Please model this.
Amino acid sequence: MKITIIGTGFVGVVSAAVYASFGHTVVGLDIDEKKVQALRNGKVPFYEPGLEELLLEQQKDGNLSFTTDYGEAVGGSDIVIIAVGTPSTDEGKANLSYLYAATESLASHLKEGVIVVVKSTVPPGTLDAVDDILKTHATARYDLASVPEFLREGSAVSDTLNPDRVVLGATNEKVFEVLEDLHSPLKAPIVKVTPESAQMGKYAANAYLATRITFINQIADLCEHNGADVQEVISVIGLDKRVGGHYWYPGFGYGGSCFPKDVKELAYYSRLVGEDQNLFNKVNELNNQRINRLLTAYGKKIGGWEGKQVAVLGLSFKPNTDDMREAPSTKVVPWVVEKGAEVHGFDPKALKSAEYFLQDTQIELHETIEAAVAGADVVIALIEWSEIVAFDYASTKEDKKQYFIDARNQFNPEKISKAGYEYLGVGRK
Ligand SMILES: NC(=O)c1ccc[n+]([C@@H]2O[C@H](COP(=O)([O-])OP(=O)(O)OC[C@H]3O[C@@H](n4cnc5c(N)ncnc54)[C@H](O)[C@@H]3O)[C@@H](O)[C@H]2O)c1
Model:
C-alpha cells in the first residue's frame, strides 16, 4: 500500500519509519522545509533511541521518502494519516488549526476510496469537522478513522513495534479490515471502537497516568507531616492487585509534550460540555503548583536559595529524549534564578534544546556532570538519566555543607548521605 503521513514531527517520523518497515511505500510530508531536508539526508531532528537507524534503513530500501509537496505525497495514496501538532491554548482548548489546514491542503489530492486517518490527539467530535472540510474540498470518495497514538518518547520505536494495544476508531467494517491489516505485523491486541471512544480513550489514558502521579504526590506531601516514607507506602499499596506496584513516580509533577496538554484539554472539554466540577481541573491545578510548593519547602531546609550555587542535572522532560516541552527544568531553573541562585546545568542529550528553551534564563550549561556539580551548594537531580543516577557523587564532594535534592526519589538516600550530602527526597524520611 502507499501510505502518507502528514506532519513529520515526533509521532509522524516514528510512524512513517515503522509503517515503511512493514514493506509499505511511505511518504512523509511536512510544511517545515528544513525538517524535510534533514530527514531526506537521514537526519532525525531530535534524539530518539534507534530511530535514525530505522529511518536510514528504510530510506536505503526505497520504502520511505519525504516531501513538502501535497500532490506528490497524497496522490495515489491508499491511507493518509494526519499527525500534526495539536497544542493547547493557556485555557486548555486544543488548537486544531494545524489539523484543519492540513485537511484542507490534502483534500483535492485524494484518490477514490482512500482512508483518511487522524492520529493527532483531538477532542471527541473532531472527525465531524474534518469531514466538513473534506466534503467542501474533496471530489474523491473517502472514509474517515481515528487511530490515536500511545507511544512514549524515549522508547518510541520499541513502543510502536510492541504496543500494549492498537486502537482503531471507525464506523464501517471495510475501514476496520484495512486498518487491521495495516497493523497485523504488530503482535498486539486490536481494539475496534467508534472514533469518539478512540479519542476519549486517548485522553482517558493520559489523564489517568497524570492523575496517578498527582495522587502519589499528594500522599508524599502528607508523608512530610508525619515521618512516613512515600516509597514504603508504595510498597504497601503496590502489593494490592487492584492497585499494582508499577508506575508510581512521586516527584516534581508530570511534564512533557503530552500529559500537561492532554489533562488541560480534557478539563477544558469537560467544562465545555457543562461538567464544570471535574477532576481534571484539579489535577492540572495541583500539578501547576507543584514546583513552586516543593522549591519553597526545600528553600527553608537549605537556608534560602539566595547566593546558592545550584547544579541542575537532567534538563529534558524524561530520560532518553532531548524534548524539553514542559520539562520540569523549564520551571525549576527560572524559579531558583529568580530567587538569587547561580545555576549550572547538565543533560546527556538536551544541551542544544536547553540553549533554546532556557535562552531567557541565566544558566551555564556543561558537557559533564563533574563540571556542573563542581562547587555546588545544592545538586538537584531532576531527571533519572542512567548516567546521572550512576554517577559517583562522593568524587565531587567539597569541604562544605552540600544538599542533594532527589526530585524523583531515584537515589539511595544512604549512598548519597555517605557521599557527604544531606539527602532531600520527596515525601521520604
Ligand atoms: N510526542 C508524543 O510523544 C506524542 C504521543 C502520542 C500522541 N501525540 C500526539 O500526536 C500529535 C503530534 O505530536 P508531535 O509531538 O509529533 O508534534 P510535533 O510538534 O513534534 O510535530 C508536528 C509536525 O506537524 C507539522 N505540521 C504542522 N502543520 C502542518 C501542515 N499543515 N501540513 C503538514 N505538516 C504540518 C509541523 O511542522 C511539525 O513537524 C499531537 O496531537 C500529539 O498530542 C504525541
